[in-house]
Amino acid sequence: MKKVITRVSASIAAFVAFFVASIQYAKAAGANVSDALGKAGINKTGDMSGIYTDLNGVVFFIMALGGFWIVGMLVWGGMTLAGSGGNPQKRTEGFIKLSLVLVGAYIIFKAYDIASWATGLGGTA
Length: 125
Known about the structure:
mainly alpha, 78% helix, flat
């Protein structure tokens, strides 16, 4: 029991020493990190309009690919349902495929909104 207490107290002491050293290192590094990019030689241009146009095109391209994918999956689910031949498991599989296609279609339909939520997280002031 004495060995366990010694090991635990040594571990706690090492953790506290590491924690205190990391705080002192952070203070020595400088509290002002707002101009860290400037110190590294990276300057803000302020013009981000080109990247939004490019990303807008990418989102529309993915939505178009998703539309073709939806048509293909509708055909696949319909063929599974039509070819079930009275087999309840195949019929259920076909209905599941068709319902998942509808969920995927909704997500692809909302892809533009999802992308605008993601780009809105950074905020442009």
